[in-house]
Amino acid sequence: MKFGIRLIGYLGTIHELVRLAVLAEKAGFDYVWFPHDTFMANTWVITSAVAAHTSRIQIGSVGTNPYTTTPSEVATYIATLDELSHGRAVLGLGLHTEKMVEWTGISASDCMVRTREAVDIIRALLRGEVVAYQGEAFHWTGQCYLRFKPYRAAVPIYVCAFGAEYLAMSGAIGDGSLPMITPPESAAYMVKEITAGARAAGRNPADVDIAGCGWLSLAENRGEATKVLRKMISYFGPYLEAPALATIGLVPEDFRGISELVEAGKYDEAAAQVTDQMTDLAIRGTPQDVIRRIESIAAMGITQVSLGGPLGPDPAAAIRLMGEQVMPYFRS
Question: What is the CATH architecture of 2-219+284-331?
């Protein structure tokens, strides 16, 4: 099992996110990921700062989408980050929901086509090719090529996806896949679709790193770990897909009232409506609780657990607990 950590913007300032990334490297995490969410602090700037302050950990963006960022921009970003970090860059390309893109008035109805073509284009650019691409979504001329030599000719591309067909495509074309495993019980559904896509494409599923994106809240006290989850679940819960919710007996309609409160800006009221059952969307509790949940995820076929969300009542303390008690259990 490989370990990644996803540092969301709600954890603090840019300087705090960089500090947490440095702590994550010291704690022994293999990857640090930053969600590239619409209208949040710019992930490309943050990953560059992290590259300058670390030396070992691999650095990537999650959910860099091929709508608000074109393949030309994504390719130059990831190639530049790879040089800055001396070959530690990884790219999480795709979407976990269409809604954030659609805020900008852009339809994301062709996300599978657009993601597949973007992956093809970015790989070709990194190889140093002239990409006069004529696809369904992108139509490029013979002037489309990098004017500098990338540090590596191939940077790992993880595909962010949701829904059975999109997940299968991530297994067919990605070096890795970044499915949301919220709740953790949904990992089996995600892995099934991803591995089926890999096999259908003639690939060995073992060649695809399935990096399950879970929510973490870790503390010595289980109650405190649970309490801190409610605000985040109230905001992101309405975006989760029905098959995943069903694995713990929830349906999208359970979040309708919460979603209405969030849209009205009544965030505290929305958080108060989050039920105890909804907190099971996360990997939460003491180090032993977290170990048990990660063991179950590994048994379902997840090969990298990417832990995001609040991390815990004290994010820095949660990172230290992961490094001192959780990750050593799996590496002993």
Answer: Alpha-Beta Barrel (3.20)
